[in-house]
Design a protein that fits this description.
Strand order of the largest sheet: 3-2-1-4-5-6-7
Mean pLDDT: 89
CATH topology of the largest domain: Rossmann fold
InterPro entries: 3-OHacyl-CoA_DH_NAD-bd (IPR006176), NAD(P)-bd_dom_sf (IPR036291)
Number of helices: 5
CATH class of the largest domain: Alpha Beta
Protein name: 3-hydroxyacyl-CoA dehydrogenase, NAD binding domain
Largest sheet: 7 strands, mixed
CATH architecture of the largest domain: 3-Layer(aba) Sandwich
Helix content: 25-40%
Low-confidence stretches: 146-155
Radius of gyration: 15 Å
Structural class: alpha/beta
Organism: Vreelandella subglaciescola
Distance between the termini: 26 Å
GO molecular function: NAD+ binding; oxidoreductase activity
Length: 155
């Protein structure tokens, strides 16, 4: 596994915010989405967010540039195989999330699989995984910030 490599599934508003916080915290981040246009929007939104942090003097230009270098985008789920942690921020559709967790548990059997769900059962998501003990809840509020992590195990 790569050093401090984290995957984010979903390039919508929540996925963008999660990725930006992780990038500015020094993590290598890979954002997956099935739609290339969503990944392009995410990259643009993240860049704008980082530029705002520089303008507010919360981030130096050098730190912004380094953070940008830590972002990769993917349209193939297999690209997340080397991640140590994968945070799911997909739409609140049970079948979609179950399929993602099933696939991710096979692709990245050593990874911690985290869901950002606010309404679905973590136990239900964990039940479709090869290693259900590796599934956790990690809820972020919008807008995402470092201090808003809630961690709960599925069992």
């Amino acid at each position: 596994m790569s050093k401090q490599q984290i995957g984010v599934v979903g390039a919508g508003t929540m996925g963008q915010g999660i990725a930006q916080v992780l990038m500015t915290s020094g993590f290598e981040v890979q954002v997956f989405d099935v739609a290339e246009v969503a990944l392009e929007r995410a990259r643009s939104a993240i860049n704008k967010g980082l530029e705002k942090l520089v303008a507010k003097q919360r981030l130096s230009e050098e730190e912004r540039q380094a953070a940008v270098q830590r972002l990769a985008t993917l349209t193939a789920l297999e690209g997340l195989a080397g991640c140590e942690i994968i945070i799911e921020a997909a739409p609140e559709t049970p079948e979609l999330k179950e399929r993602l967790f099933r696939d991710l548990s096979t692709l990245a059997p050593e990874a911690i699989l985290a869901s950002n769900t606010s309404s679905l059962s973590l136990t239900r998501l964990a039940a479709v995984c090869d290693n259900p003990e590796r599934v956790v809840g990690m809820h972020f509020f919008n807008p995402v910030c470092i201090g808003q992590v809630f961690l709960a195990t599925a069992f």
